[in-house]
């Protein structure tokens, strides 16, 4: 009887190799399946038809614009001040009503002058006595009874006394405050019985007709603006109304800090509609007209690296194109192409395009953030952004 062969011990290296091969097969299959499905998903989304983006549009048009300049400014009174007093005192009477028009020289306020009046009476009495004595000594001088020096001393004393009377009258007159010019009063800032110091404001006085408009322009326009140029101004308080004036003064110096120069226009203002301190939008003629290509400002994407628009054009569909439901599409489609443009002056809602666009080309005016190059669009112009050279928005 033969002996059984001895049992060989298990080989751990072989076991590890088989286990590693099994792991590789399992995980490799998992990753392969995952990659397959990912590729199929990408292919599906890459080939999935994109819905057309609804946008509004406008056509680039040529318009004739006058070469007008634009600026902003502030109305200032020809004469405007806070009426004050040169002498302090207690308010005895107020002779004006707030907001009323007054003529130059109208009494506005009186301060208490009892002490000053008493002093004036004493000075007038002394002045009368000095005049009488001066006249008497002049008579004696003619008769050679007194010296000429004594006569001159008496005459000088009389003149000095009269000067003191005049000075006291001037002091009393300072305590009667009058309107320095014709204008409209503001709100009073004092009350009866109140002591006011010299220089204290009593009431604002503004001359409204005519009225000045101060504005600034860049130095490049120094030679284009001349005295006598017509100026049109509008204010927020009266939308739609245009006021006309003329340039009456131009500052000869350019501000080195801003490189701007100041100018002033004068407007007739008989009804007082224009008020000092009001903000104004200004346009003024610089002479000449030119044809410009304009589009709505909403069509332009303003960027630091350049301004761009989306131009709408027609493109033939590729064979086999379908919609979202899988229905076949035929004919032409509208697609957009982004194009960089050079913009110029603006007027209202419009902007001038000097380069990058031609007259008659159609551009997108709304929905720009949803677009990319070669995106398909549909045009819906039922609601259009404002595109007016002189917009008049409702003041709410």
Spatial sequence of strands, sheet with the most strands? 2-11-14-13-12-15
Structural class assignment = alpha+beta
Low-confidence stretches: none
Sheet-strand content, in percent, reads 35-45%
Strand tally: 20
Q: What is the approximate shape?
A: elongated
Order of helices and strands: HEEEEEEHHEEEEEEEEEEEEEE
Biggest pleated sheet: 6 strands, antiparallel, barrel
Distance between the termini: 118 Å
Overall average residue pLDDT: 83
**Radius of gyration, rounded?**
45 Å
Tell me roughly what share of residues is in helical segments: 10-25%
Number of helices: 3
Q: How would you explain this protein's 3D organization?
A:
The chain has 396 residues and is α+β, with helices and mostly antiparallel strands. The chain is 23% helix and 37% strand. It has helices at residues 12-47, 114-142, 148-174, and strands spanning 53-59, 61-77, 80-84, 89-94, 101-102, 107-111, 176-178, 183-188, 195-196, 201-206, 211-218, 230-235, 243-250, 260-267, 279-296, 307-316, 332-347, 350-355, 362-366, 377-379. The strands form three sheets. A six-stranded antiparallel barrel has the order 2-11-14-13-12-15. The chain has a four-stranded antiparallel beta sheet with strand order 3-10-8-5, with no helix packed on it. Strands 7-6-4-9 form a four-stranded antiparallel beta sheet. Helix 2 (114-142) packs antiparallel against helix 3. The mean pLDDT is 83.
Task: Present the secondary structure layout.
Blueprint: H1 12-47, E1 53-59, E2 61-77, E3 80-84, E4 89-94, E5 101-102, E6 107-111, H2 114-142, H3 148-174, E7 176-178, E8 183-188, E9 195-196, E10 201-206, E11 211-218, E12 230-235, E13 243-250, E14 260-267, E15 279-296, E16 307-316, E17 332-347, E18 350-355, E19 362-366, E20 377-379
Helix pairs in contact: 2-3
């Amino acid at each position: 009887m033969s002996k059984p062969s001895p049992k060989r011990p298990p080989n751990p290296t072989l076991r590890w190799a088989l286990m590693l091969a099994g792991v590789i097969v399992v995980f490799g299959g998992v990753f392969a399946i995952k990659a397959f499905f990912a590729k199929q998903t990408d292919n599906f989304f890459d080939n999935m038809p994109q819905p057309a983006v609804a946008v509004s549009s406008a056509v680039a048009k040529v318009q004739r614009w006058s070469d007008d300049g634009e600026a902003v400014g502030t109305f200032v009174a020809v004469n405007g001040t806070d009426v004050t007093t040169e002498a302090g005192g207690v308010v005895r009477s107020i002779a004006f009503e707030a907001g009323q028009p007054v003529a130059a020289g109208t009494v506005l306020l009186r301060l208490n002058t009892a002490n000053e009046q008493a002093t004036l009476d004493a000075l007038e009495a002394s002045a009368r006595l000095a005049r009488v004595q001066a006249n008497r000594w002049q008579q004696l001088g003619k008769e050679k009874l007194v010296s000429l020096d004594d006569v001159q001393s008496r005459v000088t004393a009389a003149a000095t006394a009269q000067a003191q009377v005049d000075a006291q009258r001037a002091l009393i007159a300072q305590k009667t405050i009058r309107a320095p010019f014709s204008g409209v009063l503001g709100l009073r800032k004092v009350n009866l019985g109140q002591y006011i110091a010299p220089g204290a404001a009593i009431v604002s006085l503004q001359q409204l007709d005519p009225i000045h408009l101060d504005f600034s322009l860049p130095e490049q326009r120094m030679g284009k603006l001349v005295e006598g140029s017509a100026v049109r101004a509008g204010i927020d308080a009266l939308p739609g109304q245009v006021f006309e004036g003329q340039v009456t003064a131009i500052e000869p110096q350019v501000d080195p800090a801003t490189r701007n120069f100041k100018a002033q226009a004068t407007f007739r203002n008989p009804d007082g509609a224009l008020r000092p301190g009001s903000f104004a939008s200004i346009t003024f003629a610089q002479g000449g007209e030119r044809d410009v290509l304009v589009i709505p400002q909403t069509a332009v994407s303003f960027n630091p690296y350049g301004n761009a628009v989306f131009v709408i054009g027609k493109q033939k569909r590729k064979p086999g194109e379908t919609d979202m439901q899988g229905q076949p599409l035929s004919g032409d489609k509208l697609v957009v192409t982004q194009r960089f443009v050079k913009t110029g002056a603006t007027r209202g809602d419009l902007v001038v395009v000097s380069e990058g666009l031609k007259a008659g080309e159609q551009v997108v005016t709304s929905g720009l953030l949803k677009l990319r190059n070669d995106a398909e669009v549909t045009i819906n112009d039922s609601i259009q952004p404002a595109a007016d050279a002189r917009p008049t928005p409702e003041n709410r």
